[in-house]
Amino acid sequence: MSQTTRTSWIARAARTKVLAGCGAAVALVTLTACGGADTPADKGADAAASKPAAKSSAPAPDAGKAKSAIKGSGTFQVGSDVQPGLYRSAGNKADDNCYWERAKDSKGEPESIFDNANVVGLSYVAIGATDKIFKTEGCKGWELVDPKAKGTPKAEISGKGGMLKVGVDIAPGTYKSAGSTEDGSGCYWERTKDATGSLDTVIANENPEGQAVVTIAAGDGFFTTVDCQDWKKS
Fold this sequence. Notes:
Helix content is 5%, strand content 33%. By secondary structure, the protein is mostly beta strands. The protein has a four-stranded antiparallel β-sheet with strand order 1-8-3-6, with no helix packed on it. A four-stranded antiparallel β-sheet has the order 2-7-4-5.
């Protein structure tokens, strides 16, 4: 695997107060120097790397009063305003600047953040039962989904932007893409265990040069692709 960062595409839409700085490198890749063209900007300081998110999806005591859908932007208390669990958002465009954040408190400081991301297209996020705050801005809305639900996985997908659930949105197997889109912004893909957004859950990732090939395993949780040409199962 070539040495890459996570990720140059996030930096273009990042909110400076949270995402600026020399964020943490993905476990399986190498961090470039701050100030370089590919400096990652998807984590506030070292907060995400030093404080991994809890992965429990058990409902909070008062989750029965909390909502299972989030419409519009806002900051929500987990357990009272919004239920913990796996959420899905679709139809987010690059210029929407869709952003989410999971935090341990409401101080609004970089150290408060468990994980965060700017997303494009279809996306998922797992809100933990021990999370205190979930913040979202510019997204089309989030809906609670059954993590065990089955779908009709595709063998050909758009590579422009999206986070796909393996076995539901995309079938496992080996996929091929011609690489970066015509604007030359740089193809990026990522395989993860879950949707917490934690660096610890990244199985593999790459900014391929030219044609790209990736094998998505049946045990993978999610596959993310940004600024790539369409992926087809080979």
